[in-house]
Design brief:
With 391 residues, the chain is of the alpha/beta class. The chain is built from 13 helices and 15 strands.
């Protein structure tokens, strides 16, 4: 198949629409549903991310994409009991590595992952399909599917769930082009490989970079490679916990991603883990209630007449003092940036979310100030010398 006609482009008025190959055949097969223009943008970006994560780390990897940026990405580390509870897996059974990767990718930011596109580095098995069946999602791309997994996915969205199989051996042409406003842009495909060798230039006084932090740095860099710029990414234990995408200011990226990382931490607070929801609450309503409960607008969900539709009993608020104390306990977090930090304020903000390791290109005229700020907190910072803009 050389081309596939689509219903419309980014918006219903943008017709005609199709994907096609100038040479050769499309490397994908649509096994179910009718993916659209944005679905394919998410599918191809997310597939590149997970295949590079797998290649760089050796771990099964998954991503949850929304609007051509990752809401979450993760390696398939076994789930802890805390993760099983906070991600609502609903099972005590041991999940496959690829299923754990999906749970962690979706769990990074469940609110933003609502209606996501899923990408898997490894074949989709029944574990993933059963988990996906309970979530609101637009579609999935993977190198293959088990018969049981495909049968489960075909029942989703009244039989219309989008399922794409991609040829894992496919490599794009070395030069890519696209038209904007009737003008053709051309550039070399970004085939830069992320590997541990990029992390050798440690510029801080502290040069003790443990193996887990090296892996987290690679997760951050590969995620940033496929995130709309400007972008900053917080990572812990092989999982993104906060992605700030598409901000014009670097500090705003750092703050946005840091706020998401803080929310991820707060979801593990005993008060949050102990919330008692009404029976048969929809997953989206539960996730939204948690998000509001953690936020400064917590009264919106705890007010009389509101909490009764969500909770079995009215929970005590999570006070600002309790939030600050809980977040202050966090440590071992890595932060990555797709371009250099121009000021030390980015490091100051990252510190508030438990960051101990930083990876960024370097090259600012104020690198000395950024390094001094990292040294003030005993952080380890690596300069890669590479920029990872993605537009």
């Amino acid at each position: 198949m050389k081309e596939l006609e689509l219903k419309y482009g980014c918006n219903p008025n943008q017709k005609p629409s199709r994907i096609y190959m100038k040479e050769g055949e499309l490397p994908i097969t649509v096994l179910n549903g009718k993916p659209g223009y944005i679905n394919f943008l998410d599918a191809f970006n997310s597939w590149q991310l997970v295949r590079e994560l797998k290649a760089a780390t050796g771990w099964a990897s998954a991503a949850s994409f929304k609007h051509v940026s990752p809401a979450g990405a993760a390696l398939g580390y076994p789930l802890t009991e805390t993760e099983k509870a906070m991600y609502f897996t609903g099972t005590n059974e041991t999940l496959s590595s690829i299923a754990c990767a999906y749970v962690r990718a979706r769990g990074a930011d469940r609110l933003c992952s609502y209606g996501d596109w899923v990408a898997l580095s490894d074949p989709c098995d029944a574990d993933v399909a059963r988990l996906l069946a309970a979530e609101v999602s637009d579609g999935i791309i993977a190198p293959s599917y088990s018969e049981e997994a495909l049968a489960i996915l075909k029942t989703k969205r009244k039989g219309g769930y989008n399922v794409i199989q991609i040829n894992p051996a496919y490599e794009p042409a070395p030069v890519e082009c696209r038209d904007i406003f009737g003008i053709t842009f051309e550039q070399g495909h970004n085939d830069l490989q992320i590997h541990e060798g990029l992390l050798n230039h440690l510029v801080t006084k502290n040069k003790e970079l443990p193996e887990f932090a090296k892996t987290d740095m690679m997760v951050a860099l590969i995620t940033l490679k496929y995130t709309q710029s400007n972008s900053v990414c917080y990572v812990k234990n092989g999982q993104t916990i906060g992605v700030g995408a598409g901000q014009q200011s670097r500090i705003h990226c750092t703050r946005l991603a840091g706020q998401k990382a803080d929310h991820w931490f707060l979801r593990q607070h005993p008060k949050v883990m102990g919330l008692q929801f009404v029976d048969n609450i929809r997953r989206a309503d539960r996730d939204n209630a948690i998000d509001v409960y953690i936020s400064e607008e917590y009264e919106d969900v705890l007010a009389d007449g509101a909490w009764q539709s969500v909770f079995k009993m009215r929970p005590a608020p999570l006070t600002p003092e309790e939030k600050r104390a809980w977040i202050a306990k966090q440590s071992g977090v890595t932060v990555g940036s797709d371009a250099f930090f121009p000021f030390g304020d980015n490091v100051e903000r990252a510190k508030k979310s438990g960051v101990q390791f930083i990876v960024q290109p370097g090259g600012s005229i104020r690198d000395d100030h950024v390094i001094d700020t990292a040294d003030k907190y005993g952080m380890v910072m690596a300069f890669t010398g590479i920029r990872l803009f993605h537009h």
